[in-house]
Amino acid sequence: MKNFSYILTLLTAFTLVFSSCTEEEPDNGVTISGIPATAKIDAGAKLGPVTGSAEGLDGLVSLSVTKDGAALSTLALTGTTATFPFEYTAVAADAGKNLVFEFTVTDADGDVAKATHVLTVGAEPTTIRVSANITANTTWVTGKTYILGSRIAVTSGAKLTIQKGVIVKGEAGTGANATALVIARGAQIDAQGTATEPIVFTSIADEIAPGQVASPNLTPDLNGLWGGLIILGKAKGSFGGNASEVQIEGIPASDINGLYGGTDDADNSGILKYVSIRHGGANIGEGNEINGLTLGAVGSGTVIEYVEIIGNQDDGIEWFGGTVSVKNAIVWNAGDDAIDTDQAWNGTLDNFIVINPGDEAFELDGPEGDYINGNHKILNGSVKADNGQGLADLDNNTNVDLSKVYFFNVKAGQDYDQLPTVAATTASLEVTLPTGVVVGDLFKGGSSAFTTAVAAKANTVGADKSKFTGWSWAAVSGALADFK
């Protein structure tokens, strides 16, 4: 239950009375004004502040306030006039009630004035629109839906806690008006769903409600309806010109909450568990869309497990430097690449599924500056190629160790383009080939030496799909039926 606040502040004006007569002073009485007779708010909302006034020419003595007959406060007064701001935050237990507040002012002669206020409290709203950056610790609670009315940043020093089962919906918008949730450097997110109550990020057009996993009205290939989730940190990255920090793609340069990079590889941006991100990737400019989950220089102190990205117009998950690892991930129907790595990311992606990548299942780019600190690792994955353009696109200097990945539903022309020339490793790849195609036709530049052709579902490497049961839309929809 929420705490309520009840504030009475007295600003007292003193009146000095001079008299040269000896006659008995008259009884002047007391007045109280400014308190409205009635008001209506919902539980969880705040009334006020409303400013009341009291006057007693014989000298004010006290103000007392009751709520439903129970004393709340008694304050000493002086002088002949006083003002007092009054505010009240309705708690959940107030819903459906008419609360009666009574204000009583007493003067030095014992005269009394009363004012009564009746506050009608409605039900606590289950849908809340968020329109301003989050600058203090904030909790979004189970059973509610939160609407992103713009690009919302959790700013440095603040923490956003999202409880299990919460639905977050982004309003439609493109360009600078694209909606997104940005966890800025120095901020944290604590979004821990469960296997039975995942947290869902989606579009305002989605009719999904708390307690549901599959959308009741949108298909999993719809994309670009809002932005996405962007997490930024203070870890190292290999940036052009050897810069120490840069602006993340998808956020206008004028927004300083879009900066990422630093020197703290152990930086902690929070926790994501059992989170599904859907229908995002809004375009903010020519060829510049927001990824489903963007990780910019996020440090190894951050925990990201059990995440699903569905129907994103740009990439599914993209890392820009940093050291954060991701475990148990699904990317389904990416518009561009499913898995994209850049700027010498140095973490691990372990146990993942890709379904129908739009362009490449993997676009794995090398460092852009001089900094490099070993290789990032991608292992234990299954890729259902479907209508994707290719399997993997690597640079000559891509610093990746890739192993134990299984490709199937592959078509002629979908290739794994090369092996990097740097000291990176490729091992234990398996593929189920289309008729008339051999391993060497698809796995180029020496990658065929590490690839074995197998029959469908005869793979000995790949993802453990049991990790996605129940909480992911891909699992409950049957989209994982073809995976071993």
Number of domains: 2
- Quickly give the structural class: mainly beta
Instruction: Figure out the total of helices.
Output: 2
Helix content: under 10%
Uncertain stretches: 1-23
Mean pLDDT: 92
Q: What gyration radius follows from the Cα positions, in whole Å?
A: 31 Å
Task: Name the overall outline.
Answer: elongated
How many β-strand runs? 37
Major β-sheet annotation: 15 strands, parallel
User: How much beta, percentage-wise?
Assistant: 35-45%
Instruction: Report how far the terminal alpha carbons are from each other.
Output: 46 Å
What does this structure look like?
The protein is mainly beta and 484 residues long. The protein has 2 domains: 6-122, Immunoglobulin-like, CATH 2.60.40; 127-476. Helix content is 2%, strand content 42%. It is built from 2 helices and 37 strands. It has helices spanning 439-442, 473-476, and strands at 6-8, 11-13, 30-33, 38-42, 46-56, 60-67, 70-76, 81-89, 98-107, 112-122, 127-130, 138-140, 145-148, 151-154, 159-162, 167-170, 180-183, 188-192, 199-203, 229-232, 246-247, 259-260, 270-278, 283-285, 288-289, 293-296, 303-310, 317-320, 326-332, 339-342, 348-355, 360-364, 376-384, 390-394, 400-408, 426-431, 451-453. The strands form 6 sheets. The chain has a 15-stranded parallel sheet that branches. The protein has an 8-stranded parallel sheet with strand order 14-17-20-26-28-30-32-34, with no helix packed on it. Strands 1, 2, 3, 5 and 8 form a 5-stranded antiparallel sheet that branches. Strand 9 (98-107) and strand 10 form a beta hairpin. The longest helix is centred in the C-terminal third of the chain and has 4 residues, at 439-442. The two termini are 46 Å apart.
